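To close the section, here is one more complete example, presented without commentary so you can practise reading it yourself. The ligand is adenosine-5'-diphosphate.
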Amino acid sequence: MFEKVLIANRGEIALRIHRACHELGIETVAVHSTADAEAMHVRLADEAVCIGPPPARDSYLNKVAILSAATITGADAIHPGYGFLSENADFAAMVEEHGFTFIGPTAEHIRMMGDKVIAKQTAKKLGIPCVPGSDGAVTDPDMAKKAAGEIGYPVLIKAAAGGGGKGMKVARSKSELLEALRVAKAEANANFGNDQVYLEKYLSHPRHIEIQVLADSHGNVVHLGERDCSLQRKHQKVLEESPSAALNADQRQQIGEIVRSAIQKLGYRNAGTVEFLYEDGKFYFIEMNTRLQVEHPVTELVTGLDLVREQIKIAAGGTLPFRQEHVRFHGHAIECRINAEDPETFRPSPGRISTYHAPGGLGVRVDSGLYGGYAVPPHYDSMVAKLIVHGASRNECLMRLRRALDEYVIGGIDTTLPLHRRLVREPDFIDGNYDIHWLERFVGLSR
Ligand code: ADP
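Output:
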């Protein structure tokens, strides 16, 4: 087992990884920008190294600074968290070349799934059902017209290097296609430095359902059921739950087994998530994330497993201590992502926390680096806390979530807590009756 792990991230996920390490008796190294000197993960880590100024490109994305920090502190392994360098294949390769263990998949698998065109082709070959779409990238207008004609309108133009919901454009008819293609290519180039795009059938009322997997380096793979992440704003997840109200036990078992066996054939290792859109009883692959996800606690609460602990043990060469038939699902879990944003305009609201009181009690978990007096810096993602609640049934979970949201006090800045409080009282949400467009309508109507 490792003796010291460097955490190449910040915020709640850095704290989450620190906790898993300490429970395994592993020391931690926090790296941080000058803006994060007072952050909770920096305070709790055994050692801390400042790796640069506030902009992420100079600190949390600075590969050389992070590797230097690992060298001077004598770390054995690096956990990248999510975002930042977690899906950067070059970083994963550099980490290993410098003699550290990357707590995640191989650089080859990260690279393969990072190109969404290749990822889709791979998924298809492995027997995973995909969204109908262009066969690979579309390079010119004629090719786009031909592909869109075959797929049928509306079509969605997506960036091969896409992520974070950026660079997607809908074309509802032939007349919209060329302009949408031009804008999508320009956005893809501006955001990802790669203008390659591909086409997909635009699904009108799908749910976003994803399957969590864990794989060791000895060929053992388990799936840990699904998360329903359909409540999104601008293609960004806002609330996630497991199990999905849309699936029955047979459907869950079927899609889980398709994913499990595909991941085994792929020879993948560590944690990963295969994302699908689900419409009219059918699953359609959209992408695979080769890292820990923000919403992983939902799976932890229903399976009783610590995913970060398993990631660390797998990276250290361990064998998964259980098989698929040992995985049990208990009750229901929901996660609310709480952002430092105006709950109506969604404008970021960084600043100093005046009062802070987190909810507690049975079945309530808060993953957050917030504390009274802490100043939320303006330089990073606005998510500042995750409230995750478990109950024996979906109804119990909802009742508990309502009271936990009502208890939560974050003073001094605006947060999206009021949005979540409204959401959990909304009949459609209570009935589990929503698709990926539902939240945008809800937010639009309630303005
Ligand atoms: P990213 O990597 O940018 O997050 P994804 O491919 O995971 O992109 O898609 C993000 C979200 O965009 C999905 O959860 C869904 O809401 C929407 N989306 C993606 N593909 C389609 C599609 N073919 N039809 C309708 N919505 C889609």
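Once you have examined the tokens, check your reading against these statements. Residues 131, 156, 162-166, 200-203, 206, 208, 232, 235, 275, 277, 286-287, 436 surround adenosine-5'-diphosphate (CB under 6 Å). Residues 174-192 form the longest helix (19 residues).
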